[in-house]
Design brief:
13 helices; 0% strand; MetI-like fold; single chain; mainly alpha
Length: 296
């Protein structure tokens, strides 16, 4: 049976093309509206997040009168930063914060990395639960026992007391960042090293740690930031010679008044190192936090 092809009506073909064109136009309009809405939402989020930072940075260069009586124009001044370093000895506080944050992070890595490896490879889940409980419990719960213990040992106001107390925050975090990463490392590589004569410690140092560098970088950066920003332990356990930056900022607050210019300059000094570390190390943080998400 012969099929007879009917000719296409030109008007019908034109209607089909017009409908397809109209459909593409509607799709383009929807994409444009979605892109505009997304850009507006991102702009709103950026404004909300950046406004306090920009306001603090600008206020750090204003006089006290300009801060309490805001105006569009002001004459920038460095007096606030001069006051911070000359009158309040902030270089000593910066050194204290850096020393405490660095040493607490270092010792937390020394204890936390083997602990995370043991939990991942030997399934010491109870140890993970204990460390998780220490991380979840509010820090103020440990404050009174720490204070009594350090007082009887004569360590109140010392670097040792601050470093040990900051490790309560940093070591559990390091463990819980590293456990999923160690679990995701291929066990065959470590077994090959053991067959070649490497000890358990040698396998951990020569195989597991080099492979875990992205996660270690993440844990190090985050632990350092946590310690740098820690206020509560430093407020109670530090002394005049070991006071850290978050505590030293109270020097600008008195019963009668608040030195807003010095306070803003001090806030910039405290925030700037953390901001620089975050900006330049964010790719390591992101890769390290997601590295252990996929096992195999």
């Amino acid at each position: 049976m012969t099929n007879i092809t009917r000719p296409i009506d030109p008007s019908q073909s034109l209607a089909i093309r017009q409908e397809a064109l109209a459909s593409r136009r509607r799709a383009n309009i929807r994409r444009a509206l979605f892109g505009t809405l997304r850009a507006l939402l991102l702009l709103l989020v950026l404004v909300v997040l950046l406004f306090p930072i920009v306001w603090i940075a600008l206020s750090a260069f204003q006089s006290h009168i300009d801060i309490i009586s805001p105006a569009w124009g002001f004459k920038p001044t460095m007096r606030n930063f001069e006051k911070v370093f000359d009158e309040y000895n902030f270089l000593q506080y910066m050194w204290n914060s850096f020393l405490v944050a660095s040493l607490s992070t270092f010792f937390s890595l020394v204890l936390g990395l083997p602990g995370a490896y043991a939990i991942a490879r030997f399934h010491y889940d109870w140890l993970g639960v204990v460390l998780l409980a220490a991380r979840i419990v509010p820090g103020i719960t440990f404050l009174v026992p720490w204070y009594i213990l350090f007082s009887r040992m004569g360590l109140n106001g010392s670097y040792v007391a601050l470093i040990l107390s900051h490790m309560i925050v940093s070591m559990p975090f390091i463990v819980w960042v590293m456990v999923p990463f160690f679990e995701g490392l291929p066990i065959e590589v470590e077994e090959s090293a053991r067959i070649d004569g490497a000890s358990m410690l040698g396998t951990f140092v020569r195989i597991a740690l080099p492979l875990a560098v992205p996660a270690i970088m993440t844990a190090t950066i985050m632990s350092f930031i946590f310690s740098w920003n820690n206020f509560m332990f430093s407020l109670v356990l530090s002394g005049d010679e070991t006071r850290t930056l978050p505590v030293a900022i109270f020097n600008f607050m008195t019963y009668a008044s608040i030195d807003w210019g010095g306070l803003m300059a001090a806030a910039v000094i405290i925030t700037l190192p953390v901001l620089v570390i975050t900006v330049f190390m964010q790719r390591y943080v992101v890769s390290g936090l997601t590295a252990g998400a996929i096992k195999g």
